[in-house]
Amino acid sequence: MSVESVAQVIASGLLMGLIYALIAAGLSLIFGLMDIVNFAHGEFLMTAMYLTFGLNLLLTLDPLALLPVVAALMFLLGVVIYRTVIRRAMQARTSVWMAQIFVTFGLAIMMRGLAQLIFTPEYRSIRHHWLSDRSVDLLGVYLSLPQLAAAGVCLLGFLGLYLLIARTDFGRALEATREDKEAVALVGINRDLIFALGWGIGGAAVGIAGVMLASFYYIYPGVGANFALVAFITVALGGFGSLGGALLGGIIIGLVEAITAMLVEPSLKSIGIYAVYMLVVLLRPRGLFGYL
Amino acid sequence: MMRKLSAWLSAYIAAIVFVFCAAAPASAAETEVVIGAIYPLSGQAAQVGVDARVAMETAVDIINNSYDLDLPLARTAGLPNLGGAKIRLVWADHQADPQKGRAEAERLITQDKVAALVGTYYSSVAAVVGQVADRYNVPFVVVDSSSPSLTRQGFKWLFRISPHDEMMSTAMFEFLKDLNATKHIDVRSVALFHEDTLFGTDSSNAQLKLATEAGIKVAADVKYRANSPSLTSEVETLKVANADVLMPTSYVNDAILLVKTMSELGYHPQAIIAQDAGYTEPSFLSAVGEMANGIISRGSFSLDLASKRPAVKIVNEMYKKRSGKDLTENTAKELMGLLVLADAIDRAGSTKNEAIRAALEKTDLPGDKTILPWRGVKFDATGQNILATPIMVQFIDGQWRTIWPFGVASHDVVWPMGGK
Amino acid sequence: MKLQGLSLGAAVLALVLAVPLGIRDPFFQNILILTVLYTALSQAWNLLGGYCGQVSLGQALFFGIGAYASTILFTRYGVSPLAGMMLGGLLAALVGLAVGWPCFRLRGHYFVIATIVVAETGYLLFLNWDWAGAATGILIPFKGESIVDFQFQTSKLPFYYGIVTIAAVLWVFSYWIARSKWGFYWRAVRGNPDAAESLGVRIFRYKMAAAAASAFFTGICGSFYAQYVSYIDPDSVLAFNQSVLISLPTVLGGIGTLWGPALGAVVLIPMSELVRAYLGGTGQGTDLIIYGALIVGVATLKPEGLCGLIADLCKRGKRAARQAAGEGA
């Protein structure tokens, strides 16, 4: 095995890792805020990809130009889903978190069905855009341009989320709500509004991931399933509630996956990820940086 | 709210009770023959089922109405030996789950009283439906499931029209031999790249064996996880192996990802010889665009057959009018499969199961009465169509051209493929 | 109360035993069998997830191990599936203990994801394990009608009564355990693990027992499924989807309740089968939309599950009765 192919595998693994982190960002946010696993996260991603595809067909705008539009629409979707479904499921008198697993799972099935109804089960791709199917050659290591762009957006996105949480009043309210859900009401924070905005921002984050993914990956109603489990593991590996953990978790997973595929057996590459997860949580039961 | 919910609940229970009672088997009218089709109509491979449905409805149109085509039952309206009875299809969704396939097969047999079953794309589901067919003694015509194991289970009521993966792979290696003999293209090594489910496993097992027999080196045998988010490491392995020819076995989604990743990593083998499936689907071609140029695939269908079989062009027009797409290997087999089954029912002169099975066994349809490049349709003792001879096609200038057997080729092989 | 519970159980059992006498169509008998099967599976999940509070989304692993164990024993070594079923259950219980040992150190979502991850690892291993049929799966050949081989030409009644027996045994087991000291400790572990520990409950040991019991019954159901469908492959018995299907009925019916799994399965299974059979042929995803919408509907209208709904109705009925009595006096 030459140096180039090792470098190639590591570079591609790193890129894929950043993409996983980007996909997991929204999940991590909602997770950390409300202790809720959104089992429809993959379907949110799928919706964002179809929105990109549909708007690209309709407006013939480049996916990158559609980024703010899709993010805004997904923000709305997040808020609406919270208001109509999640909030009600959270009123369960017993086992809130089981009720929400159930409700988001039902949501996932429904969204898949709707996508099939509207877009048919055909595999779609966005063909011609600024970045399509181009790659950069760095001394024999090829990096796909759309993936590079996605990795860049990922880093920017995490920076943005960090600033939002650390530097704004809204961020402080978010932190406070996370830490003590009951007490915040006493200091005049509208908990319900914070939750709704949290879902909105989570939706927008996965919207951005969807746009970037749609520029190089195929789209079909079940596409969310290809990324959902990896997103859950990414967030848990980094530790619930930690954005930095999600970023690092994504990178680790991308690298481990690529290296397992190269060294062991491609069809078993997910086992590499699973083994790393088990190892980490057995040593650190709250993930790398988690405090929940 | 509580009252509303309990009203909903009682309505639900009432609905179930109603369905249980009302589902008394509706007996088929004498003037029609009911055939049950079992396909994935939701989930991962739903598009396959949706396309199969259009293809088979086209076949029903050909059977039930009169067209001037050289195909079985085309020139007459309905089945003449059954007093012009019409064919009617009942559709069932197996969602790629063998358990659901079993339930649907039983429902079609007992409730809809189907005369025969067709299906099922997934070989795993076909294995279970084959068992149901055997237990209920109902003929089951497999039109597109390609696992060799299906016709080796000793099923009495199963007939497979299409060639299986071993027959297909054999053709691929005979093609390589002919290339060497007549065009002096000597392929010394191949790389296998296949998905990890049934289809990929069957295909690679056959290819591995055939390559060894032919004395061709297998430089890499990459088994990859279907529906992967990324195939970069896998493609890098292929690139390092640097075989003359890449032989991939994939469904559409992975095919798209493979070809895109190959282009991104600058991997260009002399040729790609694909095990059909994903690589000939229209959605693959539209996703990868010019990257598809020069891909070779084994096949059972190509539109340029029209020059030898005029029916192909007309049937394709009929299909295209309904679906907006050209016929592919799968849809052509599904369409033809229904014609063969209907022809057997007509020859049987009745919808009795034994009569249909006897007629299927006696099937001897010459190739020029099909829309496929086969020598014909004739079943051996295991129920396998032995005249389903595969061809090789290549994607040249935006369309699939037959390139082998050289005697029937409509275009010369382009070797090495386009690339850069 | 105790007597009431048992007599209700007996009444339901009598009804369940009588149902197939009225329903002869194999398609509907199939729905009945699946309903009872998922009642049992979900009840087994309930032992661990409901009573003990350890939510597992990896039950497919135990299901698959049961299915593969009896199938391999039957097709390779001619062992009767009835014996294979027991061995499959025991093997699943052993695996449950082996998996529980590391996983029970984790809490909350970390535990849930660990169960998914372990089950997915099992799925991938079986998918690549040639000796166990790998992706090809194993087709169980039909050797003729026989109770010992647990195979029947077209009749579904033996399967129905077989699964009813398993479900009834499991119901009695759950009934007994919920009232025993084990059930008491399990609820303590679920309610407040730290307090339970400080009171001297050896949490770990009780969790392990719950895992073994849950895995044992799930494995038995897996063997039953394999024999019933007569074909297994990793996708149908070990995939994540199966784990979710196993937990859904209890979550819908009521977690940690004796009747929750049955109530949930009675609503969910016929619904999904009928919706697919009568609306799934369109290829437009209508069946998925309706199925998903119904789950969302129930979960938002009554997040405590159907048992909570029935309890509410009973309370309201009692209050109405009291009011009526008050007016009468």
Could you walk me through the main structural features you see in this protein, from its secondary elements to its overall organization?
The complex is a heterotrimer of chains A (292), B (420) and C (329). Chain A has 292 residues and is mainly alpha-helical. A two-stranded antiparallel sheet of chain A has the order 1-2. In chain A, helix 1 runs antiparallel to helix 7 and helix 1 packs across helix 8. The longest helix of chain A is centred in the first third of the chain and has 32 residues. Chain B is built from twelve helices and 14 strands. Helix content of chain B is 42%, strand content 17%. In chain B, strands 7-6-8-9-10-13-14 form a seven-stranded mixed beta sheet, with helices on both faces. With 420 residues, chain B is α/β, with parallel strands linked by helices. The relative contact order of chain B is 0.13. The model of chain C has no long low-confidence stretch (mean pLDDT 87). Chain C is an all-alpha fold. Helices cover 77% and strands 1% of the residues of chain C. Chain C has 14 helices and two strands; from the N terminus they run H-H-H-H-H-E-H-H-H-H-E-H-H-H-H-H. Chains B and C meet through helix 1, helix 2, strand 2, helix 3 and helix 4 of B and helix 2, strand 2, helix 12, helix 13 and helix 14 of C.
